Amino acid sequence: xxxxxxxxxxxxxxxxxxxxxxxxxxxxxxxxxxxxxxxxxxxxxxxxxxxxxxxxxxxxxxxxxxxxxxxxxxxxxxxxxxxxxxxxxxxxxxxxxxxxxxxxxxxxxxxxxxxxxxxxxxxxxxxxxxxxxxxxxxxxxxxxxxxxxxxxxxxxxxxxxxxxxxxxxxxxxxxxxx
Amino acid sequence: xxxxxxxxxxxxxxxxxxxxxxxxxxxxxxxxxxxxxxxxxxxxxxxxxxxxxxxxxxxxxxxxxxxxxxxxxxxxxxxxxxxxxxxxxxxxxxxxxxxxxxxxxxxxxxxxxxxxxxxxxxxxxxxxxxxxxxxxxxxxxxxxxxxxxxxxxxxxxxxxxxxxxxxxxxxxxxxxxxxxxxxxxxxxxxxxxxxxxxxxxxxxxxxxxxxxxxxxxxxxxxxxxxxxxxxxxxxxxxxxxxxxxxxxxxxxxxxxxxxxxxxxxxxxxxxxxxxxxxxxxxxxxxxxxxxxxxxxxxxxxxxxxxxxxxxxxxxxxxxxxxxxxxxxxxxxxxxxxxxxxxxxxxxxxxxxxxxxxxxxxxxxxxxxxxxxxxxxxxxxxxxxxxxxxxxxxxxxxxxxxxxxxxxxxxxxxxxxxxxxxxxxxxxxxxxxxxxxxxxxxxxxxxxxxxxxxxxxxxxxxxxxxxxxxxxxxxxxxxxxxxxxxxxxxxxxxx
Lengths: 178, 494
Fold this sequence. Notes:
The structure holds two protein chains of two kinds. By secondary structure, chain A is of the alpha+beta class. Chain A is 32% helix and 22% strand.
């Protein structure tokens, strides 16, 4: 009797194993992307937007893939600024703004060439203009500490002013945008 | 055949129910103690990069981790904040629940629920475990004392006064000032690491500002009136710190002495050729208002802000006309308009009109807008008082002998008067319920090349429904009266 039971158990196990092995393979549910970032490094970036009351800048921290070159870092930062805030803040960059070129000299002067959308896409008054410039300057200086001054140009051409309120003809000292 | 050819796969399938059960358990655990997502916290933008330090109470801990709150005082810093302050790249290993922060050649490995932290080649025991709490790993703030200290990694400091961990700027730390008076000279002695980086950035007596590369870690008294000093406060700064002094109108000159590990600001009642001068100010008493230039913003093909039927260029011109009548009626001053119809006037032409008229005051009239915000009220933009009275004068006072000022920035010579004008008008707005108001010291585009006191005045915010609702004819008349009230206060100069 005992032998019969052991035999039955072995048969049951083998039958279960055979069933598992020969059953048509079901496509497994896609596993959610795990937080394992061993291969790709993430770096916290500090992005600046306008406060909802329009009286100051606010900052958000956001994880971005680590970029190797200055060009990639600045392009990523500006793209993230363009995506706008995730929290309670107000987007600042004119819609469609992207980076064309960037150059950083050994004295900390960054020349930032932005797409024409930066000039043509501003809809607002001096507050909108102030925060468009301030969020750019503060975001760049916060994430690239070598940046001391920023000269903004568009399409390779200098910009006298964005909306007629603040001059952009000279480099902007990052210390002047608290 | 498949059965024999892939035993590993077969065994894996056999084991899958167990894996599913354990996976479910891990998922439940992860739901209770999330791994390490980034917190999207919006913060008022302070100066130097900083991160709040939380105080974790035992009752706040989720689950029974069997861990005490971080440190003796329970103060912890989030791993995401720590990585941001260190400018580190994060590598999270979900299987071992380790978070590695890499900064150049340095690495810091935090182990969840474990007090041992690997820092480069050594292991450091923290006063309490690193916790998984609030959606991310939380390390005791004591960790920052064990971080490497070389030039390749940011130096962090715990500021108990502000309750934050800050990145100590390359300029180091600035201490509390000490004020003394001797022989009629008021001296502020301020300890600082890098004296060469201290700069005077605003020279107005009422708003005299010093900027430091270092982080201000001192304390200031609530009120201070010693010698020529009337007030002292800290200001937000992008990096480092800034102090603003309010000085007596008796102050005539100053000099900044750089000594080892400290700067000394000396303020004298006596004008001296070897000392620096303050920003130009008119003498006390009523100010002349003979010619007032009104500059309605935008015009022609440039409408300015257009929102919900309100058009900035039209409103600005309408307000300017009403303001002209009010000024002529109450102040008996001559009013010159840069435009009196819907036309585009280049910035340089506007400045020439103001300069040719020998304007006593220039008001550039605008209406603001910031889409998708709660912004409302008025703003004024005025030049910064960053030049002394010697600027633009050959052979003027001051050790620089000759200070040249580009004509573009000539409005900076009138910065003190411009700020007084803006404060008077904005106060009038506040009294009439037309606020909130904001004053920004930043040379505005319409004042480039304008040799007179002035400001860019955003009279209301068109994207604010409440502001827009009061901009009918009666509302514009009220705005004109409020501006003239401010002009009268500026003229009295009490």
